[in-house]
Amino acid sequence: MSQKTAVAGTGPTRRPVRWHLVYYLLAAFDLVAISGSLYLGHQVMGIFRSSVEINQEWAERLGDLSDLGRAAGAVNAPGNDVFDSHDVAEETARQATALVEFNRLMAAFRLSLDRIDDTNRKTLTRGVDRIDSSMKQMIEESQRIFAYFGANNPEAAGRRMATMDRTFAAVSAAIADTAQSVREIQRSHFHGQVNDAAFLGTFEYLFGGLIAVMVLGVMIYGHKIAAEFKRHEAERAAHLAQTEALTARLEASLVEANIASTAKSEFLAMMSHEIRTPMNGVLGMSGVLLDSDLSAEQRRSATTIRESAETLLRILNDILDFSKLEAGAMQIETVAFDLRDLLRYAIEIVTPRTNAKPVTLELDYAPDVPRHVRSDPGRIRQIVLNFLGNAAKFTERGTIRLSVAWGHNGALRISVQDTGVGVPADRLHLLFNRFQQADSSIARRFGGTGLGLAISKRLAELLGGRAGVESTVGVGSTFWFEIPVVAASADDVATALRGAADVAVAEAMQRVKALGRPLRLLIAEDNATNLLVAKAVLAKFGITPDVAGNGFEAIEAVRRLDYDIVLMDVHMPEMDGLEATRAIRSLPGARARVPIVALTANAFADDVRKCRAAGMNGHLGKPFRREELIVAIGDALAGTENASYREAGVSAVEVPVVDWPTLDTFQAASGDEMLKLLIDTYVETTQSQLAQFAAAIRTADSSREATRVAHSLKSASAMAGAAALSKRAAALEARASDGETIGEADVSELVRLFDGYRSALVERGLLAA
How far is residue 297's CA from residue 310's CA, in Å, rounded to a whole number? Predict the structure, then answer.
């Protein structure tokens, strides 16, 4: 054991050699040396190029002086040639021309002196001034000679000839001296640049020597590194056996853990299936039982069965959610949604739990928090419902307030504050632990798994945030969570809700616009509520329809006007939609081929087949979404087969008296005034139809009229959000069409559901009491 410890390095330690740092330094040194050498080479080449350019410049100045000497000779020549030509005028003109050229060259040479340093410029300027002075004397002598010739005194002119020759010699000497000064300056510049290059060359040798030293240092230190590697290799070999043994134990533990996790997941999956299957039966059949005629005691028993099943289902969902969180299998999505609506619906879900207690549920939505955001609405709803459910469970009186505001670091803070029993300070840390509750008596009194808060905390963390609680015994508790969100727009939410339906709607609208004129559309509908909804939806797309109240009116309208499309209800008085369609198809000419779409609450596959057999081009079941309606119109215009229907059946879920999402959707699409008009129209017509239904079942041949009225009640109720009444009317329609007897109890049930619908609207302030 002592040997192993020593090998492991627990004895005297040596300071590790930081060889990588040394290599970094050497690399940096090498980079500097090479860069310096390249820089020096660049400077030397710059000196060479500069030397060439300067030598060329001074050579050009020597050439200019040579040209100046020739020009001076040309100025001097006429003074000599006049002795041969005796033509004073000609020689004077020649001298003037030569003098112009001489002065031009002198001016150019003076201008070139501006580009040199002051000392050399002064030297050359003195030479130029000397040339200029001598040239002026030579010109004066030439003028005297020309004057003597002009006075016919050649002897005097000859005597001035020697003087002019001396002045020309002075000009030539001045030019030669200036040229000599140029050569000396050129030579001085050249030697200076040679010296600069030689000076930089010494540094190149220095950098070369430094690089050689660096290479030698690398070789020496490389030897040390090799020795260090050998030492580390020996230590690594000593650790390897221990590491391999530990790895083997860890792998074995991991395999066991994976087997246990797999077994747990398989067990939970199996139990989920096994429990949910009978649970669906319990929930479904309890809902069916509650829809039937029960005594008060029987209804209480059926309600207890349903509530117990829902409690078991919530427990099962909690266990499965926590299992997913522990396994890291919980998926988070990011979509745009309406946060205010989500929280409002959460309150509505919890409200029934507080109705029997003096407890008020409130929503406090900060004005600076956007209504539309991007996050995971499902997980947020799950957390909020858990917090609200706990608050409703532990609050016997007072207020439960759901608040939304901005928290720390720009995160969205959602909190639920209650006036319940509160939690002792020493128990707060247990609340978010799995299978933990603040007090062991809570499970006995209120039930629960102790998983809800643990799941909520983990979900908040998955959303990138955190969760917590503040509580005072006897005062109440505040459960909160903060998550980052991104603001969105109503268009983003609409896009997220519609998804791919946007494409179909856009294509349908394009087909309508392609007509190049307003769409000519006829609606054959006898129910005022259904007609109001259809017209409101079409108005959103800029379509104003014509209306027919029954099949006869529809046939007459098609006979009079060339319509683009007809929306045909199936069940109408005097003549139904199927008969009207057959009659239209028998009309002469193009009017017989007008596209007809069934707009009816008959949503079974057999109903669709009947519509097809009658000659209809498509089928749209009520209630419909506005996107479905415009898509059906677009498909009919394009000659595409369309059948938007849902197979009906007995729902295993209890249908609410009021389908609030349907009303909210209509309100968002058409506005508050249209919603009020829809509700008022539905309430008025339904009262009349309930009386018609009661009268129809008392007649000898009641099946046909009862079927028609029940069908109208079914579709209109679905449009107006009276979900329970619509479902009940659909069941009575099916019974009436099968010839079954319908009694007064059935009418009473319809009236009861209608009264419940009206009461809910009155409570919401949507209908006058």
Answer: 20
